[in-house]
Amino acid sequence: METQNPLQIQELLDLCITFLRGWGQDYQDLLSCALVARSWVAPAQASLFHTPHVTNHRFMKIDRLALLFCETITAYPFLARELNIVEYFYLQRATIGKICSTTFPRLECLSINLSRITTWEGELSSLVTLKTLRYLQLDVNESFPAISSFLSRFSPTIEHLDLGCRQWDGLLIETSVLPIKITSLKLDVQLWNAPPQRLDIGFLYPFDVSQLRALEVVDAGSLVWESIPDQTSQTIEILQLDLKSKPVDLSRFPHLILLRVVLPEDDMSVLVRTLKTITSGHCLQTLIIWTGFCEPAPEKYKELDITLSSLPLDPFPKIQMESSFIRPRREEDLKDMFPKLVSQNKSNMMPTPVYNVAFLLLEH
Fold first, then answer.
1. 165 contacts 199 by C-beta, under 8 angstroms
2. Which InterPro entries match (predicted)?
3. How far apart are CA 71 and CA 37, in angstroms?
4. Beta strand pairing status for 347-350 and 286-290?
């Protein structure tokens, strides 16, 4: 029986090339892969054009690049599945217009970060209405009522919303548009000296949060957790928190499967009080702790170590410690930080951090 060359098996080939892209290798590696064989061309090109960035950085000749990009996508429409539109200085209307008018038959992820979305409403409309869209990253620098008409045009196929908010003027005004049911939400509310915001049914209209399965809040103190409807808290399976000021009552989320928390640099009591709300009724399978740049000081994490090792769960969840690429953790660090947990063989290192709840949801 003739054995097939592993590098001719499409699934293995896709994994190898995706690995190159995931580890931030130089584009030259992917260009080289595209020249190996015919079967390597499509996956290598797809990785090269995986996330195009449309920007007007002063070191880039954006007009010429935009023209070449549009010609490439027109010739090879299967390439771009993600598109980032980012404004650094001043973006030419003709340039952004040409990008947005290009046909993207397989665009699934769209990221928009513009100082004034209303200025580009007409140009962006052709992108945000695409029926292939599943993931939307939106950085809002204007009030919600100001962009309500723009939001009402979004494709109903969007499932994952990553929202950055810099202004807050109240809830969106409901229109006759049918709600868009999203399954994951990442919320980054950065309002100086503003009270915590409420996350109720009308909070993000036309986006319906009543059936969320994954929720990430960059600053847990920016949200009134009690405002989350019981219907929503009962459906959330993945929760990602950066606890800075107040604890979160996890008993309201009985169907949690995965919990990811950021280890505070100073006050551990907020995280300890949050974890103590986990009950025997939870079905938590994985607890991920982002250790960041915290020093491995045993006394500092003593109470947290005791709390983690005595969680009232059976079976006991898998506890993973995420490590930074800049400052990778070693097993010795874990022993210093969480000796009780390590002695019970209840934790392990996880070298590659995963930051987005949408992709955590897709993995599960």
1. no
2. LRR_dom_sf (IPR032675)
3. 24
4. unpaired
The pLDDT tens digits for 224-257 are 788 788 888 899 999 998 887 788 999 999 999 9
18 and 42 Cβ atoms separated by less than 8 Å: no
Asked if 229 contacts 253 with a C-beta cutoff of 8 angstroms, the reply is no
pTM equals 0.78
| Pairing of β 286-290 and β 238-241 | unpaired
**How is residue 144 written in tokens?**
């919600």
Of 210, 215, 208, 226, nearest to 188 by C-alpha is 215
Residue 119 lies in a domain: no
Pairing assessment for the beta strands 82-86 and 109-113 based on DSSP bridges = parallel
Give the chain's domain count. 2
Question: Using CA atoms, how far apart are residues 136 and 156, in angstroms rounded to an integer?
Answer: 12
Range from 173-177, 224-228, 258-262 carrying the lowest mean pLDDT: 173-177
What's at 98, amino acid-wise? K
Residue 269 belongs to some domain of the structure:
yes
Identify whether 76 is part of a domain.
no
CA distance 86 to 53: 7
pLDDT on residue 289: 85
Report residue 277 as tokens. Answer: 């709300």
Which tokens sit at 227? 């405002």
User: What is the token pair recorded at 164?
Assistant: 């950055």
**176 burial class (0-12, 13-18, 19+ CB within 10 angstroms)?**
exposed
